[in-house]
Amino acid sequence: MITLEKNQKFATPSGVVVEIYLQNIALDLAGGNANETNLNLNWQAEEDMQLEDLLQVEYFADENRLKVEEKQAKVNNAKLTVQLPPECEVLADNENGSISANNLDGNVKLKTENGSISLQNSQGKFRLKSENGFLRAKAISGELKLNNENGASKVVQCSGKLKVKSENGVIRVLEAGCDKAEITSENALIYFEFAEIEQGKFKFKNENGKIHLAVPSQLPYNIDAATKSGKMHIGLKGEYDGESDSTSKIIEMTQGAGTVAIKVQNKQGSINIMPANKGFGYSHHFDFDFITNTLDNVLDIIPQEYRKKAQQDFNKTKEKLQNIDLGKISGNVETALNEVKDELDKFAQKVSESKFQEDLKQKVRQGVQKVKTNLSSSSRKEVDERSRLKILQLLEDGKITPDEAERLLAAIGKNDE
Questions:
Q1: CB of 70 closer than 8 Å to CB of 54
Q2: Number of structural domains in the chain
Q3: What average pLDDT values come out for the chain (417 residues) when binned by 10 residues?
Q4: Would you state the pLDDT for residue 30?
Q5: CB 111 within 8 A of CB 135
Q6: Alpha carbon of 109 to those of 88, 117, 119, 159, 271: distances in Å?
Q7: Is 220 part of a structural domain of the chain?
Q8: Residue 294 structural domain
Q9: Is there a domain that residue 190 lies in?
C-alpha cells in the first residue's frame, strides 16, 4: 500500500460555480484570496495512480463552472481538499464521506447521506442537509439552514437568519446572535441560547421532544408559549398571563419593549424557559467537538465495506457525547468515556484487517485521552454543573417549585464567584 498525492489547478474568476459529487472520499473546502481553484487529492492504493483515475474534473470556461465527480476506484483513506476563490457558489454532495468547510463566502449547499458536515468562519447563504450524519456550524453570518433526519445538529455563534429542522436528531443552538430563527423537531430535544439582542423573531415547534430556552435577564422579550399535554416551567422573573386545563397550558409574558418575539409550541413534550445566567445557559456546556472530529477522521480511514455500519454506530456515539447530561452520569465523565472507548474497541475487533484494527484503536485512544485531559482541569466546575442539571431535573419533575429552583441555582452561582 502506497500513499499518493496529486494536484490540479484552474484559473477561475470570482463567482465560479463549483459542483462536487462524491461517494466515499472525504471533502475539505477552504476559501482563498486568489481567483483560482486548487484541487489536492490524498489517498492510499496498491499501485501508482493519477488524479484522473479517481476523479472526473471538467471546467466550462464559458459558464465559469467547475465540475468534479468521483469515479469507481478501489482506494483507502481518500481526501479531497479544494481551495476556492472568494464569492463562489458551491454545491457539494457526498454520499458517505464527511464534508468540512472553512472561510467560505457565497452561496453554498452541502449534502450528505451518512457523513457529517462541519462549517465554520463563513459568510453568505448556506444549506446543510443530511439523513444520518452530524451537522455543525460555528461563527456563520448571513442565512443558514440545516435539515437533518436522524443525526444531531449544533449551531454556535451564528448571526443573521437561522432555520433548523430535524425529525429525530437533537438540535442545540448556543450563543445565538441571529435576529430571526425557526427551529422545528418531531421527536428530539431543542435547546436554544439567546444572545443579548435588541429585536428579533423566533419560532420553536416540537411534537414529542423537549424545548429548552435560555434567556438573558435583560432581553426585551414577548413570549407566547403553548403545550397541549406536556409540562411547562417558566423561570424568568416577572408576571405572566396564562390559562390551562387538565392537559394544555398557554402563557404570555412581556419584558421591556417586547421587541424580541418568541413563539413556542409543543404537543407532547415539555417547555422550559429559564434565565441564561442562572446555570441553564452558556456556562454549563462542555464542547465535545474535538472528539467528534476525531471520530469523523476515524471514519474516513475505515474500508468501504465496513463504513456504513460504522457510520451508524459513530453517529450514536457522537450524539451521546455532544448532548452528554452530566447529572445523569454514574461516577464521572472519565468513566463514561471509557465505556465509549470500549464500545469502539469492540467494533474494531469485527474488522478482519489487523493493521486497520490497530489504527482505529490508536485513534480512539488518542481522542478519548484528549477529552479526559480537557475535563480534568475543570473538575470543580463539573460538580457544579451536575448540581445545576439535577436542580433543573427536579424542577421539571415537579419535585421543587420554580422559586426554590431559582434560590438553589443562585447559591451555586455565588460559589462560582
A1: yes
A2: 1
A3: 91 94 94 93 87 93 95 84 94 94 96 94 97 94 96 93 95 93 95 94 95 93 92 82 75 94 94 73 44 56 60 59 45 53 58 58 62 53 59 67 69 57
A4: 96
A5: no
A6: 11, 11, 11, 18, 32
A7: no
A8: 289-376
A9: no
Give the whole-angstrom CA distance, residue 86 versus residue 106: 8
Instruction: Confirm if 333 and 257 have CB atoms less than 8 A apart.
Output: no
Using DSSP's 3-state secondary structure scheme, residue 228 falls into coil
pTM: 0.72
Contact predicate 14/87, CB 8 Å: yes
Look at residue 248 in the predicted model and tell me its pLDDT: 81
Helix ranges, 8-167 (H): 51-54
CA distance 50 to 144: 37
362, part of any domain: yes
So what's the pLDDT on residue 290?
45
CATH of the domain at 345: 1.20.120
Specify if 363 maps to a domain: yes
Cell numbers that stand for 333 in this block: 465523565
Would you give the DSSP letter of residue 218? T
Length of the chain: 417
pLDDT at 50: 87
